[in-house]
Amino acid sequence: MGTVQYMSPEQIQGQEADARSDIFAFGVMLFEMATGKRAFEGKSQASIVGQILAVDPPAVSSLRPEIPPALDRLIRICLEKDPDERFQSIHDLKLELQDILETPISATQAPGTRTRWSSWVAVAVLGIAAIGLAWAYVRTLSAPRTSVHAYILPPANSEFNFLANWSGGIAISPDGERIAFVANKPDSNEEMLWIQALDSATANRMPGTEGAGFPFWSYDGRYVGFFAGGRMQKISALGGPPQTICEAKDARGGAWNQGDTILFTPTPGDGLFRVSAAGGTATPVTELDTKGGELSHRWPVFLPDGKHFLFWLQGAKVAADGAIYVGSLDSKERRLLVATESSGAYAEPGYLLFVRDGALLAQRLNLSSLQLEGDAQPVAAHVGVNTTVFRSIFAASATGRLVYLEGGTSIGHRLLWYGRDGRPGPAVVQEEEQYRNPALAPDGKRLAVSVVTSSSQDIWIFDLARQTRSRLTFGQGRSLHPTWSPDGLWIYYSAFRSGRTYIYRRASDGTGEEETILAGGGMRLAMPNSIRDDGKYLAYEQIMDSAFEKSARNYDLYALPLFGDRKPIPQILSPFLKVWPEFSPDGKWLAYASEETGRLEIYVKPFPGPGGKYQVSTGGGDNPKWSRDGRELFFSSDVGEVMAVDVRESGAALQLGTPRQVLKAPMVGGPEGPFVVSPDGKRFLVNQMGSDTVRLPLTLVTNWAAELKK
């Protein structure tokens, strides 16, 4: 196909190319000859592709004022996105260049100026002859191309955002003719399902699939399964209303075999379950070895026999303990295939595809012995991985087609200030890294945040005024949920060690040793979230061993006295997901998010009780945050909004206003901490995707295995 910087838009999109495509490439060369700069710049091939498809380069005369207007116009016509708007033949272009050479020098040009640009215009005319010779040579080559690379754009005014959330994903139909993917509605943050035929430049939006995530195709390609609203659903690839299959609160992938059995993971802390594609009750297929530190079985993929399947096992560490296994519908036995930090897939002709250190690799999988053979070979150098859910962003068909997102193995985040007027301010931290659970110090001068890499997760402290950073934890185990003490002297946090997550604290200036605050007692996980302003109570999430063996996500909420015997005080105990307990400034109320209605909503209860609860949100909510004066309660919505509710006390009761939007901005999902509020309540620190992880196209490769070493 040629070097990406010189490819025309129609080549990139896999459409028919002709002489006008060469004229585009010739125009790119003329631009460089005239300016000494590239017409299209980017940090990666994918970002260059985005520039070619959507951005016009600056006028040549804006970079080199001595360039004559006629030459400026000629280059601009060569670089038109639409082939019909370019020169229609290289002969016409040659005549235009010769005219420019023969045009008398203008009175405004210095005498030496013409010498500088006319010499390379003459070279360009000779270059046209070279193009003709090269084309004649290419036509003499009889060997057919073994594979073709092309790019697939997101829908107009939309983004793929596969790395930006917990619900993205792409799937290719078994015949390799169509892809299903999740992207936001045009000019909206709300995501839905789209289906695109690979011989078409446009995708079809599937109505009724708002909030969709992790699509997968039926074996015959007639349906697409997906997850939305706490349910697994299916929709005809031709359109129509979605149909519910079963409950799936927060699923992690599905696979559909020729017997109409669907294999899926209902929640992040589950093993694999099976259910009929017609609907019904889901039954378990695999069981977690919780004593061995297994946290999840997810991202299933059926092998061709429809009985055996691949899945990714999440172990006790961030990613280094993950691996791809093969299992069976009629047996509890499973076999380790390869250690890897994210999901894999089976691809014809007989390969396991997986990502390691950012590279997509292929290794022979013997379907009889269910063992890998030979060495793994590289397929693509940089393939995106959503490290939040450990999902590789690629899909392969039975017909040798491969689709993947070019990217890295980590998700870059930015931390930006936003005012209530919706205008973004400066970045709080210049580096783009994967940030989770940002927390401002009580005086707003420092920021504690968990920073994730492929091998560690540690807490760092940023001095916002001095723009310096210091590390608080040092790879002793995954550290998260930093929580400031009211005086700013301590950071309370969770750390994952030896298969369990307990609560610790350390001085915020990094001095002294770590102290254990809460551990043991049959507890599997505890995460701090808020400390009352008087410093006496810590609100936290907890799950016990007995509950963890049933589900790794149904936390209960407790308050831990930071004085006396430190005996935890139960606050919310129920079989539903409950997260983000947050004390009001006066310590009388506890806000939290609960899934008791089938979706996360915000509630407030008196602390320590007794008393009933108040429902604050009406259309979903997560991550509650109080204003410093306690008169507003903020929370995030499902579509990238910061909502606010006015709060007034009336005796022992609360009076709540109607939720209203105070900010709409792109932000990461709730579990990563989408926003925090400044001490004066006038600004919001938003955790959002980095600049290099949006608007990237997909790469399509046909007959990908032909490029492997024989």
Topology, pairings included?
Elements (H helix, E strand, L loop, with lengths): L8 H4 L6 H17 L9 H10 L5 H4 L5 H10 L11 H13 L8 H29 L8 E5 L17 E3 L5 E7 L6 E7 L6 E2 L7 E5 L5 E6 L2 E6 L6 E5 L6 E3 L4 E4 L8 E4 L6 E2 L11 E7 L5 E7 L8 E6 L2 E9 L5 E3 L3 E6 L2 E8 L4 E10 L4 E2 L4 E2 L1 E3 L4 E5 L7 E7 L4 E4 L6 E7 L5 E7 L4 E7 L4 E4 L6 E7 L5 E8 L2 E8 L7 E4 L4 E9 L5 E8 H4 L7 E6 L7 E4 L5 E6 L5 E6 L6 E6 L7 E2 L6 E5 L5 E5 L4 E10 L2 E4 L3 E5 L10 E3 L5 E7 L8 E5 L8
Antiparallel strand pairs: 1-51, 2-3, 3-4, 4-5, 6-7, 7-8, 8-9, 10-11, 11-12, 12-13, 14-15, 15-16, 16-17, 18-19, 19-20, 20-21, 22-23, 24-25, 25-51, 26-27, 26-50, 28-29, 29-30, 30-31, 32-33, 33-34, 34-35, 36-37, 37-38, 38-39, 40-41, 41-42, 42-43, 44-45, 45-46, 46-47, 46-48, 49-50
Task: Walk me through this protein's architecture.
- This protein is mainly beta.
- It has three domains: 4-139, Orthogonal Bundle (Transferase(Phosphotransferase), domain 1); 151-410 and 694-707, Neuraminidase, CATH 2.120.10.30; 413-689, TolB, C-terminal domain (Neuraminidase, 6 Propeller).
- The protein has eight helices and 51 strands.
- Strands 44, 45, 46, 47 and 48 form a five-stranded antiparallel sheet that branches. A four-stranded antiparallel sheet has the order 1-51-25-24, with no helix packed on it.
- Helix 2 crosses helix 5 (69-78) and helix 2 (19-35) runs antiparallel to helix 7.
- It is globular and about 95 Å long.
- The model is unreliable at 136-144 (pLDDT under 50).
